[in-house]
Amino acid sequence: MAEDPAPQQAQGNINVHNQSVSIQPVPEFNPDAEVGTSLATRWNTWIEDFEMFVIASGIQDKKQKRALLLYQAGSRVREIFQQLTETGTDKDYNVAKAKLKDHFEPQKNRRYEVFKFREAKQEPNETLDQFHTRLRSLAQTCTFADADFEIEQQIIMAGTSSRIRKKALRDPTYILKDILVDGRRDEQSAYQAQDIEAKDPKYDNLNEVKSKQQCHFCGGSYPHKRTCPAKGKDCHKCGKQNHFVKVCRGKPKREQKESKRSINPLKITNSDSDSSSDDYFYAVKSNKTPKVRVTVCKHSFDATIDTGATINVIDKTTFDRMDGVELKKTNIKAFANNAQEPVKFQGKFEATIETRKRVAVATFYVAQMPDSGNLISATTAQDLGLISLHINKVSKSKDAKIDKMLSKHAKVFSGLGKLKDEKVKLNIDQSQQPKAQPQRRIPYHICEKVTCALEELEKDDIIERVPENQPTPWVSPILAVPKKDGNVRICVDMRQANEAIKLVRHPIPTVEDISLELNGAKWFSKLDLSQAYHQLELDEASRYITISLLN
Q1: By percentage, how much of the chain surpasses pLDDT 70?
Q2: What is the mean pLDDT of residues 455-480?
Q3: Residue 269: which H helix or E strand, with range?
Q4: Which Pfam families would you find in this protein's record (predicted)?
Q5: Fewer CB atoms near the end CB (10 Å): N or C, the chain?
Q6: How far apart are CA 369 and CA 377, in angstroms?
Q7: How far apart are CA 69 and CA 103, in angstroms?
Q8: Domain of 227?
């Protein structure tokens, strides 16, 4: 009796109940592939697939398993394996597998695996069980001490269910097991409710109700909760009021005749400036607008003189005709009338500007708009002698009653005042270790100004000299800040000393409280205290913490 031939195990064909089952071999492993997972994670996944393939194929011979491992892994893995030492004999399958694992395992970056775990978020169409399975797979390479707790936290923070998140934050006993049960219930009930509420498609058009209508004035949804946003606004297309351009049905307004003057205000904001206020200048266009022929960088062009302008503007067309001009970056912004977006500038440059009679140096800002016109500011026009200002008289009237009051109470309105019968006491924390900081160097060119400022403060009795024998546990350095008028402002760096000051909190009255107290009042006075901070005298017992070291 002849024996049945052995099945072709190496080719992945096995016989189960006389039925031939074809098993696809695992693909080659590419250790150089740039994918989202780490090398160690990909190798562990591949070796699991390979061993399942071996078991399903019925291969039990260790020599055959080792050969199949190196063959299926691919040529790149075989190159790595040949460089390893103590890889065993041809029959040592477990040794070969362990050597490859030891090679790929050190390349696992635990910090990166944890980062991937923290970045995982539940997708909109992903069920909670699917998200949980994905997190469980990611947690295997993170070596968490308590994987269930970390998965629970990630579901709470990155899950799509707001109800589960709120319940978990409210109930500390709400653990992962409860979260999964509730999540399945929510998803099942949502699916069932959607199935119940589903409409028959043939009735969709009959039952469709347009819940929101479009406003004919602003283009938004109607009715409005408040006043229509287009009320009182001008249309930039037709020039009429109470509607926006996107719903305008009128014809574009005609260009105004040249004889009619049009004023286009531009709001100028300079981020380099110390002031928080905004400047405005007006470009006046009419047939009577003064224009002048000027030469900048050997190129002549016509420019409009605007006595209300604060900057010189050159359009893109004019600038492109100039050769060899390098632009510098600028942060200045100009807003045209009723415009939401600022006028864009390519940059700025400084150059000489010439007329037939005079030459001046000015800064020019280059607008990105072509053929928008060139503008000469009032300052530049004055330097070129194009305009002159004549001040006939400056009058300042005062009420006779005010003059009488100032004369009668001259002491009150002269010098620096001081709060009477009250001194400021600081609550100093004595447990804090005193800190004596060294003096900070003051630039030599402002030393004389600093000395004058300190003498002025001492003369006004704002500061005083410390007695020679008095200890100085707390010392803070001074800072000299230049002012726009050329003088300096003396400041003290009290940050470390402030750490020892105990805060005393007082309730701040609201506007309603003040309004009730002012009920029935007829006369109101506005007082502006000069250097109000220096008008509060510091108690003698609190002065030692405010000592500054001066040279």
Answers
A1: 81
A2: 88
A3: strand 262-269
A4: Retrotrans_gag, RVT_1
A5: N
A6: 19
A7: 15
A8: 216-251
- 263's enclosing H/E stretch is strand 262-269
Please identify, among 364, 384, 404, the residue that sits at the C-terminal boundary of a domain.
384
Q: Could you tell me if 100 and 123 lie in one domain?
A: no
Burial class (CB within 10 angstroms; exposed 0-12, middle 13-18, buried 19+) of 274: exposed
d(CA 94, CA 387): 97
Q: What total of structural domains would you count in the chain?
A: 5
Cα–Cα distances in angstroms (integers) from residue 306 to residues 152, 290, 428, in the given order: 69, 8, 60
432 in a domain, yes or no? Answer: yes
* Residue whose C-alpha is closest to residue 376's, from 368, 390, 392, 365: 365
- Distance, in Å, from the CA atom of 369 to the CA atom of 522, rounded to the nearest integer, reads 55
445 and 546 assigned to the same domain: yes
Domain shared by 97 and 120, yes or no: no
Verify that 85 and 116 share a domain, yes or no. no
Same-domain pairing of 378 and 328: yes
Q: Is the dihedral of CA 286, 291, 297, 300 positive or negative?
A: positive
What is the total residue count of the chain? 551
The pLDDT tens digits for 164-198 are 888 888 888 899 989 999 989 888 888 887 777 66
Query: Tokens at residue 528, please?
Result: 């502006």
State the Cα–Cα distance between residues 292 and 289, nearest whole angstrom: 10
pLDDT, position 67: 86
DSSP 436: B
Please report, for residues 300, 311, 381, the alpha-carbon distance to residue 295 in angstroms, rounded to integers and kept in the order given: 4, 17, 13
Q: Is residue 391 part of a domain?
A: no
Both structure tokens of 29: 């492993």
* In-domain check, residue 6: no
Q: Do 84 and 44 share a structural domain?
A: yes
Give the per-residue pLDDT at 314: 92
Contacts of 345 (CB under 8 A, 6+ apart): 330, 332, 334, 365, 366, 367, 368
pTM of the model: 0.30
Q: What is the pLDDT of residues 402-418, one digit of tens each?
A: 888 878 888 777 777 78
C-alpha separations of 239 from 230, 235, 236, 244, 338 in Å: 13, 5, 6, 10, 12
C-alpha 478/C-alpha 438 separation (Å) is: 10
pLDDT at 474: 92
- Convert 521-546 to b/e letters by CB count within 10 Å (16 or more is b): eeeeeeeeeeeeebeeeeeeeeebbe
Please confirm whether the linkage preceding 473 is cis (ω < 30° from 0): no
Using only C-alpha atoms, the chain has a radius of gyration, in whole angstroms, of 41
Answer whether residue 21 shows pLDDT above 80: no
Structure tokens at 40: 């160690």
Share of the chain above pLDDT 90, in %: 6
Rounded Cα–Cα distance for residues 254 and 262 (Å):
13
Between the two ends of the chain, the Cα-to-Cα distance in Å is 117
